[in-house]
Amino acid sequence: KDLENIIESQRSENVKEGVGYNDVPHSAADLKYIERFKNEVETLKEEKDVVDGKFAPLLKSSKDLENIIEKGQNKHSTTAENGESTDNILSKPTVKFVMAGDRPAERPTTNKA
Predict the structure, then answer these.
(1) What is the DSSP string of 36-72?
(2) Following DSSP, what letter does each residue of 17-30 receive, concatenated?
(3) What's the pLDDT tens digit per position in 76-92?
(4) Whose CA is closest to 88, among 100, 103, 72, 102?
(5) Taking phi first (over 0 means left), then psi (-120 to 50 degrees means alpha), and beta for anything else, what does residue 50 get?
(6) What is the maximum span of the chain, computed from C-alpha positions, in angstroms?
(7) Which helix (H) or strand (E) is 28 found in, with range?
C-alpha cells in the first residue's frame, strides 16, 4: 500500500512538472501583494455596485425619454416646405452655403470729399 502511495505521489509530481507547475511557496512580500491586490479588487467591485445602483435609474429614465421623444415625433410630426420637421426641438438647423460668384458682394460706399 505504501509503495502505491509513493508511486502515485511521484506520478502527480511528474504531471505537475510537465505542465510547468511550480510548487514553490510564496514569499512574505508576494503574500502581502496578493492580499493587497485581493482587497483592491474587492473594493473596486463594491464601488462598481454602488455606481451601477446610482446609474440604473438614470439609464431607465434615458430610455423612457427616448421612447417619449420617438412617440412624440411619430404622433405630431409636421414638415415645412423644405421637408424639415417643425415640431422637433432636437433637430439641427440647416446651413446652406453659396459660392462667392453666385451673388455679387455689396459693399457700402462712402464718399469722402
Answers:
(1) HHHHHHHHHHHHHHHHHHHHHHHHHHHHHHHHHHHHH
(2) HHTT---PPPPHHH
(3) 455 555 555 555 555 66
(4) 72
(5) alpha
(6) 126
(7) helix 28-76
